[in-house]
Amino acid sequence: MAYTGLLNRYRPFLNLPAHTKTVSLLEGDTPLIPMPRLSRELNCELLVKFEGLNPTGSFKDRGMTAAISEALGRGAQTVICASTGNTAASAAAYSARAGLRSIVLIPAGKVAAGKLAGAIAYGAEVIQVQGSFDDALTLVVELTQKTPIALVNSINPFRIEGQKTAAFEICDALLSAPDWLCLPVGNAGNITSYWAGFQQYQKGLPPILGVQAAGSAPLVLGHPVENPETIATAIRIGKPARGEQALEAAQQSGGKIIAASDDEILAAQKILAGEGVWVEPASAAGLAGLLNEVRAGRLDVKGQRVVIVCTGHGLKDPSIITESFLAPRAIQANYDALLAELGL
Ligand SMILES: *Cc1c(COP(=O)(O)O)cnc(C)c1O
Q1: pLDDT tens-place string over residues 286-304
Q2: CB-based contact 299:293 (threshold 8 Å)
Q3: pTM for the full model?
Q4: Is the distance from the beta carbon of residue 312 to the nearest atom of ligand 1 less than 6 Å?
């Protein structure tokens, strides 16, 4: 049967109002990619759920198809979100599809090029806020309380409903939940969604390893971070909206929330790309955290099946790569020059 999108595939499992009018870009249905080299190294079966292959390049499309479909059905004409970038691109695309006006607030100067370009390409009105993501979210919440503009950040419950589908897909592909699930944690909507999804689907409950960036790790420190800093801009969030639920998910599942440094995150990004899967920095946090735990002897995954959720595509943040090396060397356009360059 032809694939017609997440809402059609999983509708009986999603708590969405009857007025919901489906807006889909055929999101979801992303691959679980086996990683043979990493698996051998860690003595386990390691799989990457590559969410970067969604229509706008991140998992945000799962929640956005639900949130925009509900907003459209309710008669909303304008939607708004605060975003570190991927929510903005996703909200812009689904709004465009639905014919809605979309406004996105981003922290000034802190959004990766590929994400900003996406939001603009899809026609959103983009406003930079001189402050953090958390400041932008506060503004958006106040505006949507006082006007009929619909809020599509992950405090919107329908976002969580849509994002549960990633857990369903993993269980459907493996015929049961994995032994571990590792993923990055920013505003904590995704970890909340996975845990809700696994509980609802009843194919097993994996311990969840949630990973924050060390410079932006409120859930590890136990208090908000005033000026969060990390190269992993998608998880540069000092006051997660669903922080309590994230801690609960980690604890109830028998997992934990830990931090990984920027260097560790970039190293993990390189390892994944070295096996053919290029993800944006935040998306490598799950692997970075897993490697930390295994190498320190705090976690043994021998013989187990581990799913690493890679939340966004590497193309979203090309400058993190291009700014880290010198421009490729130039040679004259002749054969001898090529041989000389290659040392042949
Ligand atoms: C949004 C996002 C995250 C963080 O997800 P939360 O639900 O905010 O915890 C991680 N990685 C990428 C690529 C994202 O876009």
Answers
A1: 999 999 999 999 999 999 9
A2: yes
A3: 0.96
A4: yes
